[in-house]
Specification:
By secondary structure, the protein is α+β, with helices and mostly antiparallel strands. It has 9 helices and 7 strands. A 5-stranded antiparallel sheet has the order 4-3-7-6-5, sandwiched between helices. α1 crosses α3 (about 45-55), α4 (about 75-105) runs antiparallel to α8 and α5 crosses α7.
């Protein structure tokens, strides 16, 4: 983006670019440089530099004849991705009670938030096992099945800050300790934890994926049954099937994982 040091702050420069992008988005159609500059309260020459950078990145486009600016394909792509993610979480949330009934286990959906993996939907089974959990509760990244799935399939740059806040160890050393487990999770398609959050409770978690092979949400099941974490268990089969059903078809995830092939999901 233009002038990372402009105004003495790279963040300020990015904020100004986003402001200009929002001005264009709020208009009913293509808008001129003069109007954008006036609404942004900046000089036309300065607005022009931001506009050209946004065009280069694909967030805006410029008409060859009028020179007016409008939203670009990159903005459309991001908008559609956001809509898809919200829709997927809503649809998966509506189906969560059925998954909980089928498995006789507590089920919950989590998304990545500022505080880390955060529950947005919780469904208690007929035999609830975790009364302390519910919507709004955040999970640890390195010790919960839910957090490990985000670690395995999420954006590293977003995860690092949360892990640094949650662990008292050196960040690199903490990640190194779970690196082999993360690779196993990527191959298997799911993670598990036994008694790490609450003694006697077993948890399995799997990702609901976007088209770019990144996690949108994590679906988790918690039960008192000992075999829930077994790769051959009905719980694992039903959870993987649930997550595949609500994932966006994309490169990579459409292929069966080792565990899926084994249990013929």
């Amino acid at each position: 983006m233009v002038g990372d040091n402009e105004g003495g702050s790279g963040v300020k420069s990015v904020s100004q670019a986003i402001r200009i992008l929002n001005i264009v988005a709020e208009m009913n159609g293509p808008v001129s440089l003069k109007e954008i500059a006036a609404r942004a309260e900046v000089a036309p020459s300065k607005a022009h530099r931001y506009l050209q950078s946004l065009c280069t990145c694909g967030f805006l486009s410029q008409a060859s004849k009028s020179g007016a600016y409008d939203l670009g394909m990159q903005t459309l792509r991001l908008g559609l991705a956001a809509i898809n993610r919200v829709d997927i979480i809503n649809r998966a949330g509506e189906a969560l009670p059925g998954l909980s009934d089928e498995t006789d286990a507590d089920g919950f959906l989590s998304v990545w938030a500022e505080s880390g993996p955060t529950i947005v939907r919780f469904e208690r089974s007929k035999r609830p096992t975790m009364a302390m959990l519910g919507a709004g509760v955040s999970m640890p990244v390195l010790t919960s099945a839910t957090g490990l799935v985000f670690l395995a399939f999420g954006h590293p740059d977003r995860i690092e800050e949360v892990v640094r806040r949650q662990t008292k160890e050196n960040f690199d050393e903490a990640i190194k300790k779970v690196s082999s487990r993360v690779e196993t999770i990527r191959k298997a398609g799911y993670a598990y934890s036994v008694g790490l959050i609450v003694p006697g409770r077993q948890c399995i978690a799997a990702p609901i994926m976007s088209y770019d092979d990144k996690v949108i949400s994590v679906a988790s099941l918690v039960s008192l049954e000992q075999d829930i974490v077994d790769p051959d268990s009905a719980h694992v089969k039903k959870l993987l099937d649930f997550c595949k059903r609500y994932s966006i078809r994309k490169r990579g995830y459409a292929e069966e994982t080792l565990i899926e092939k084994k249990i013929a999901v």
